[in-house]
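Morning!

This is the sequence you dropped in the shared folder:
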Amino acid sequence: MSKVSNTLKMLILLKSRGKMEIQEIADELEVDKRNVNRYKDDLEQAGIYINSTPGRYGGYEIEDEDYLSFLDLTLDEYNSLMFAVEQLKQY
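The structure's back. Tokens below.
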């Protein structure tokens, strides 16, 4: 997958599953942990901040649940996003 698609998939994974270990995200995206860190940086540059908790029970989680509230989505666009979220939940 491309960097953009992996970054978006990481966003959807964190939104749908909550806190995830970096290795767990890397396994889902079939990349190494360094790439996951790069995707985190890309999301933060876009204004989507990810909390990083160190330690045994640590991981990444989305800091702000309302990160998409500023978007002016049409109903079709919103429905497409919700469909993608539901599809990813099945994994």
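Headline: The mean pLDDT is 85.

More detail when I'm at my desk.
O.
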